[in-house]
Write a structure and sequence with these properties.
Serine Threonine Protein Phosphatase 5, Tetratricopeptide repeat
């Protein structure tokens, strides 16, 4: 997935989730201090700037600032479900900056603090996927995948996660050899 495709899908998901949290957020905004409103504006400005960036690695300082301000807001407003989206977005940015362990930590806050939100299962899946593919910690990836199945047994990702668990301990080179062998047998 290209960086711009990721950012577009990321923005669409964020928009849908923020709209779904809209009423609560509007009520919260009425009681927000001027400082909090300013922080929200800064976060939105940074998000827009990131959305218009072709490669986030070209402007890591913008990503870092977005993460810091998103976490700052979320920590100041733990009861606001929009904080779940901010943690999720901050984790996505950290992941794009190749700060994989930081991303895993932030996604963990989403499903642990906001388990009923729409982004919670996606955050838990991203933890497993990132541990599997970027950090290369299969043991930890297995833990997150199994936890996902336990917490969200009827989620649409479960069948795919079960398939990932079947091959997670296999050496990728052995899998390629087996695939090539199967293709040779079909000819």
């Amino acid at each position: 997935m290209t960086q711009s495709t990721f950012l577009c899908s990321f923005s669409l998901l964020a928009f849908v989730l923020l709209v779904s949290c809209g009423n609560h957020q509007q009520e919260e905004e009425k009681s927000l201090s001027a400082e909090d409103q300013h922080l929200q504006q800064e976060i939105q400005y940074l998000k827009d700037k990131l959305d218009n960036t072709v490669n986030i690695l070209d402007t890591p300082e913008t990503g870092e600032e977005f993460i810091a301000k998103s976490v700052q807001y979320a920590e100041a407003h733990p009861k606001d479900t929009a904080s779940a989206v901010l943690y999720f977005e901050a984790a996505n940015v950290a992941n794009s900056l190749r700060q994989y362990r930081r991303a895993v930590e932030l996604w963990g806050k989403v499903w642990q603090l906001y388990p009923e939100t729409e982004v919670a299962p996606h955050a838990l899946f991203r933890q497993g996927f990132t541990c599997d593919n970027s950090i290369r910690d299969r043991h930890l990836a297995r833990h997150y995948y199994e936890l996902f199945i336990q917490k969200y047994p009827s989620h649409e990702y479960v069948s795919g996660i079960r398939n990932l668990l079947k091959v997670i301990d296999r050496d990728p080179e052995d899998m390629v050899k087996q695939f090539e062998k199967q293709n040779q047998e079909k000819k």
